[in-house]
Amino acid sequence: MQKSSDYFVLALLSAFYLGIVWYYQGNTLLLLIASIVFAVSYILWGIFHHLHQGNFHGKIVLEYALVALLGVAIISTLLI
Amino acid sequence: MSLSRKLRHWFTPHVSNNFRAKLLHNTGIFALLGIILSLQVFLRLLEHSPLHILGFTSSITIDEVVRATNETRVAAGLPALSYNEKLADAARRKAANMFAENYWAHISPSGKNPWVWFAEAGYRYTFAGENLAKDFGDTSRMMSAWMNSPTHRDNIINPKYKEIGLAVVPGTLQGADTVLVVQLFGTSSGSGGAVPQVASAATTSNPVPVTVAEVKATPIPTPAPTSDPVINSAPVPPRFNQFTVSRLLNLATTGLFILALIIDLLLAQSKVLTRRVGNNWAHIIFLNLILLATTIVNAGKIG
Fold first, then answer.
1. Closest C-alpha to B161, from B136, B132, B126, B198
2. Angle, to 10 degrees, between the axis of helix B242-270 and the axis of helix B26-47?
3. CB atoms near residue A29 (< 10 Å)
4. Are A66 and B243 an interchain contact pair (Cβ–Cβ within 8 Å)?
5. What is the pLDDT of residue B87?
6. What pLDDT, on a 0 to 100 scale, did the predictor assign at position B228?
7. Is residue B207 very low, low, confident or very high in pLDDT (cuts 50, 70, 90)?
8. How many CB atoms lie within 10 A of CB B55?
């Protein structure tokens, strides 16, 4: 139950991000900010998710941070 | 190490990589990040090199933009706009001035508002408006961006306008190759008696479209015949589009990473591996959303 609520939060974050991307597709600065906020939210989501799962570890936080950074790098190279 | 062993090491959970695909280790992700950023730096250097392999390409033409604008108006129950050569001349003058003064706004750094170009082209108006766009590869994406912006959409489907003029001009603006689109709307002073309204033009880095212009109290002099500003409505000579190449490279590298996540997930489940690692499903969802966003975002900007 706890796990499914985690995924529900991730789905909400995703829907919010996609909505911003769709509506403001011509506004470079706003898209960049939205992508960074989404990436930071994803790291926080990862931390809470693994705390809920009971398998939290510093290396996992680093993994989420790197994946989030990868996402920001991919979108920012197209926006900047 | 043979190729198959290398692939197994990088993409599948195995004893050689502590039962986690090497690409998904923090060092692997860091290496991928380095590769993506290095490729982007290389592309930017290539874009600015004299080789002209990469650059900005666009298929936008005046005919296409006029057709798309009129189709949008007809769909909204409004009459189509007629193409006016004086308005087109004003649009070309505006575009030439933007390149000359190197700005992206409705009002030039020297204080010239959009209506200066109407006057110079000899177009007298009761209503007038201006939409700007740059960096778009095709007409449909540019039209979508305009229609998604309430202020630009208001210009396109404004029932007060009767005529349209356009300039599609390639050039270098603020250090980057681009194709600048200036779309001017108007109702000539002879064709209507509407009450004049005040313009809302403002100089911003992200300009907003001007909707309705003030009617000039003083007569607008017809300019002496001059040679046209630098005009070229033909598409930019074919080159690889830097934005498209960047997008493809990002899609390929991220696709590879997602593939590794999927393979790792399936094999870990089939072998019932217990590992303290990040959630592959979450990574797949996050990165697919980013990829989806990269397909939605436009290279272009509107003003």
1. B126
2. 170
3. 12
4. no
5. 95
6. 41
7. low
8. 19
Give the predicted TM-score (pTM) of the model: 0.68
Chain B positions contacting chain A at CB under 8 Å are: 24, 26, 29-30, 32-33, 36-37, 40, 144-145, 148-149, 206, 243, 246-247, 250, 254, 257, 276-279, 282-283, 285-287, 289-294, 296-302
Q: Which of B149, B218, B220, B222 minimizes the C-alpha distance to B183?
A: B149
Neighbours of B247 (CB within 10 A): 19
Pairing assessment for the beta strands B240-241 and B54-55 based on DSSP bridges: parallel
Beta-ladder partners of B128: B186
Tokens 């229609």 belong to B147
The amino acid sitting at B51 is L
Residue type, B87: L
The full length of chain A comes to 80
- Tell me the pLDDT of chain B averaged across its residues: 82
What pLDDT is stored for residue B48 in this prediction?
Answer: 73
Confidence of residue B215 (pLDDT cuts 50, 70, 90): very low
